[in-house]
Write a structure and sequence with these properties.
globular, 51% helix, 6% strand, Integrase_dom_put, Integrase core domain-containing protein, Nucleotidyltransferase, domain 5
Length: 475
């Protein structure tokens, strides 16, 4: 490759004398990259001029790293230490979820029953060497992780979602400004498209957590054999459950998810709102029965509201976000399989293969989506909107800070009765989301028992397994 000096690429060579050594090194590296990919000196000079106008010094560094870094990164996640964990473990956990010191004190008090002032917490953080400043993850690692996330379906998310994913899902330490500049450099067109979207919200009233929860199914992936079901709290916008399954039309499945949630929370919501579908009949009867003897204006029959699905505002808004940041990627991939003849959606066996290979991956990504959603900050809305802004987890667990109150009701029975209801009236979907006959076929093909099947969390591994199964199964 011919060696071009700065003077050959930039006639205003006098201005180069004002540049620092770091800026010169960055420019030379970008020049080498451009020339290696066939750009002429004139084109490279124009590229440098544009980068000087649009990017600061740190932006050019980001641009260089984004151009040169391509590698994968494994998901680590932040496991919950448990209700019996020590205070230092809880502080470490909430700190990694990007909460401030004041917010952590609130969680310790309202959720774990432990009082700690901000000054005590700061001293504890210093003793544990927990800090955010001067503790940033290396820039190449951040860029490689973002590129890997883009390849695995998170190419349509904004910088705040990406920032939370990097910090919470991967255990990195990244500022919002660095995440924003990386996305601007890696995917300029995507950032431009997202910035032009304008959303008008309707007025919504709610008094506190569990005052009204919204339940609905999501069918965008159902043509390929996978259905999604979710529930969201109307006040805090906290996701209560988000499940990928073979079907969201089976009322025993929906009843199982509902009972499993109230068993975990040890309380009842004031009102549940859903559409008039037959998949909600068991959940409807359970909610009305459990709320029958509680004397308030919404007890008994009034504790379950039925309406049009498109008017179920909170959950429908969530589906819009899920489509742009999650579903569109999977629809494109499955459509590609269909266009190339690899997938036949009219064949039940092919749908079984999709569920066997991709259901665990989709559920893993839904869990990441729910964790990020519940810890992201909802911006302040118009003055006439009375629903508070903030972080869903804080709004749900600490409503008193925002002028709300927990509107849930205690369980009218013990947990053993809830277990009996689960066993009698509900069921969970089959293992791997597939029929027993299909699992038997896979056991014969692989020579492994069903309890030896690995849990797949990577799209690449799932696609390889899907192609192998389709090729191995008879036409």
């Amino acid at each position: 490759m011919a060696k071009y000096r700065f003077e050959e690429l930039n006639p205003e060579s006098a201005s180069l004398q004002k540049k620092t050594f770091t800026e010169k090194v960055e420019q030379q590296a970008i020049i080498k990259f451009c020339l290696d990919f066939g750009k002429t000196p004139t084109e490279t000079h124009k590229f440098l001029k544009q980068s000087e106008k649009q990017h600061s010094k740190i932006s050019r560094s980001l641009l260089l790293c984004c151009l040169l870094c391509v590698a994968d990164h494994d998901v680590t996640g932040i496991p919950y230490p448990g209700d019996d964990a020590s205070v230092p473990e809880l502080v470490q956990y909430y700190h990694q979820l990007c909460y401030t010191s004041l917010q952590i004190c609130g969680f310790l008090l309202f959720v774990h029953g432990t009082f700690m002032s901000c000054s005590m917490l700061k001293r504890l953080k210093r003793r544990l060497n927990i800090r955010r400043r001067n503790n940033q993850s290396p820039l190449p690692t951040v860029v490689r992780t973002i590129l890997a996330l883009h390849r695995n379906g998170l190419s349509n998310v904004g910088y705040r979602y990406m920032w939370r994913t990097l910090n919470i899902g991967f255990g990195l330490c990244v500022t919002q400004s660095r995440a924003r500049l990386c996305l601007r450099t890696i995917d300029q067109q995507g950032v431009l498209n997202r910035s032009h979207r304008v959303l008008r919200r309707r007025v919504y009233y709610n008094r506190g957590p569990n005052y009204l929860i919204h339940v609905d199914g999501y069918d965008k992936l159902k043509p390929y054999g996978i259905a999604i079901h979710g529930a969201i709290d109307g006040y805090s916008r906290k996701l209560l459950w988000l499940i990928a399954s073979p079907s969201n039309n089976n009322p025993r499945y929906v009843g199982y998810w509902y009972l499993n949630w109230i068993k975990q929370r040890k309380m009842l919501p004031r009102v549940v709102r859903s559409d008039a579908g037959t998949e909600n009949v068991i959940m409807r009867d359970l909610q009305r029965s459990l709320r029958h003897n509680q004397n308030d204006e919404m007890s008994g029959q009034n504790s379950f509201l039925v309406g049009r699905s498109v008017a179920n505002q909170r959950i429908e808004r969530l589906w819009g976000t899920l489509k742009t940041s999650f579903t569109q990627f999977w629809r494109n991939r499955f459509q590609d399989f269909q266009d190339t003849g690899l997938l036949n959606v009219s064949c039940p066996v092919h749908k079984e293969c999709v569920r066997f290979c991709f259901l665990s991956v989709i559920q893993h990504q839904l869990d990441m989506f729910a964790e990020n959603w519940n810890s992201h900050r909802i911006r302040r809305q118009r003055a006439e909107v009375v629903t508070p802004s903030g972080i869903p987890n804080m709004l749900y667990y600490q409503p008193e800070i925002f002028g709300g109150r927990d509107c849930s009701f205690p369980l009218p029975c013990n947990l053993q009765t809830i277990d009996n209801l689960i066993e009698e009236y509900t069921e969970n979907f089959p293992e791997h989301g597939c029929s027993n006959e299909f699992i038997n076929i896979v056991e014969l093909l692989t020579g492994n028992r069903r309890d030896q099947f690995p849990i797949i969390t990577s799209y690449d591994d799932a696609e390889l397994l899907f192609r192998t199964l389709i090729a191995a199964l008879p036409n």
